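2024-03-11 09:14:02 INFO receiving multi-entity request
2024-03-11 09:14:02 INFO entity count = two
2024-03-11 09:14:03 INFO echoing inputs for audit
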Amino acid sequence: MVMKLFELVGTDTSRPFSPYCWRTRMALAHKGLGAESIPWCFTEKEAIAPHKSDKVPVLLDGDTSVADSWAIANYLEDTYPDRPSLFGGEGGRAMGRMLNWWGDVTVVGGIFPLIVADIPAHLAPDDVAYFRRTREARLGKPLEEAAATRDHAVEGFRKSLDPLRLTLRTQAYLGGDKPNYADYIVFGGFQWARVVSPFKLLVENDPVYAWRERLLDAFDGMARKSPGYDV
Amino acid sequence: MVMKLFELVGTDTSRPFSPYCWRTRMALAHKGLGAESIPWCFTEKEAIAPHKSDKVPVLLDGDTSVADSWAIANYLEDTYPDRPSLFGGEGGRAMGRMLNWWGDVTVVGGIFPLIVADIPAHLAPDDVAYFRRTREARLGKPLEEAAATRDHAVEGFRKSLDPLRLTLRTQAYLGGDKPNYADYIVFGGFQWARVVSPFKLLVENDPVYAWRERLLDAFDGMARKSPGYDV
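2024-03-11 09:21:47 INFO inference complete, emitting structure
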C-alpha cells in the first residue's frame, strides 16, 4: 500500500512549503519510497486530529500514522532498514538530533523573519488570518515590520551558517560524500524559503549556495521541479 | 609503546587548559588509551615544529605524529577500531565534522571573550606577551575591555547553546545514551574555561550544567581531578 503524506500548502496545492514537510519528502526519496501527497492548510486541524497531531508532516503507512519530521525520519530508518540509511549508524542518529535542533533554531528560526511577510500572498483568506495572528504573536510585531530590516538582517543569518560553510570545505555534504538526513534537515529550510519568497538568502559564491544547488538537483531534481522562485 | 601528547600549559605544568587538547584527552580516555603528557607553552614553537605543526594538541604514537584535534580523533578511530567508537559509524563521523565546527565557532568562540582576561595570570612572562599580542589582534581590543561586558554577554552565550540544551531534553549526551566525540568537542570548551577562569558560564538549573557535571565525572573523574575552578 502506498504511503500518504499530509503536506502544508496554500492556495496552490501543488506547492508544498513547510520546511519540516520538505525534510520528510527528501527522506522518503532517500529511502526510495514514494508517498501520495494530501494537501493540507493551516486551518484544517480536524483533518489530522485523528492522527494525534495539529501540525504536519503526518505520514500514513498502512495502519500506522507518524507525526513530526524527526519522528518520521526515525520511523523510516527503523521500518525500512534495508534501504539507504538516513543517519549512517547510531552515532549519526544521535548527533542528528542536535543538528535537527540547530536546523530548527538557526536555519528555520533565522529564515523566518526574513521571508515571513511573503507567505500570506500564498494563502487563502482564512489561513492568512490564522497565519498573521499566530506569527505576529511569535514575532511580537507585524510581519511587515520584521521584513523591513531584512536586507541588513540577512547578513547575520548568513554568518550563522558558518559551521555548515566550514564543514563544506572538506566534504560535499553534512552526510559526507553523499547527502543524508543531516542535509535534508537544513535543506528543508532553504526549500521552504524558495517556494514562498523571492528574497535572496544566499550569495552565489557561497559554498552553501553550491551545496543547496546540489540538493535541488538530487533525486532527479525533485525539489527544483517543485514550483518556487529562482533564488 | 605508550603514546605521548603535547598539551598546552602555563606556569603550572599539571594544569593543561587548551579546549582542543581536552577534546583529545577525553577521546583517548574513551578509547581506553593512555598518553604521557608533554607540557607545552605557547612560545615553544620549535618543540613541535618537527611534527609540522605550530599548535597543540600533537599526538605521538610510535613513529607517527598527528596534529589537530579533529585529525587525532579520526586517527584514533581508524587506528584503534576495536576499541569503543568515537563516532558511532560513518554517519556520526561526517556529522561530527559539523559539530566540531559548531564547537569551534559557537562554544570556543563564544567562551573566548568571556574568559580571555583571566588567562594571562596562568602564563609565564614570555607567554603573556605572546598571548596578549595575538589575542588582542583577534579581538580588536584589549583583553580587559572584552571581559568588561561579560556579565551581560554571557546571556547571549547561554542562549547560543539552545541546540545542545534542546537535544538534552531527550537524550543524556550528544552521542545518545553514552557520550561520544560529539560531547568531547563541546566539553573541551567548558573544561578550558574551568581550568583558567572563575567566571560562571552556566547556571545550575540549566540541563547543560548537569551534562557538564556528568562529563566531569566521566572516566573516573578525570577532568574534575585536573586543577581548576569550582564553577
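2024-03-11 09:21:48 INFO post-check: Chain B touches chain A through 32 residues (CB under 8 Å).
2024-03-11 09:21:48 INFO post-check: The longest strand of chain B covers residues 3-8.
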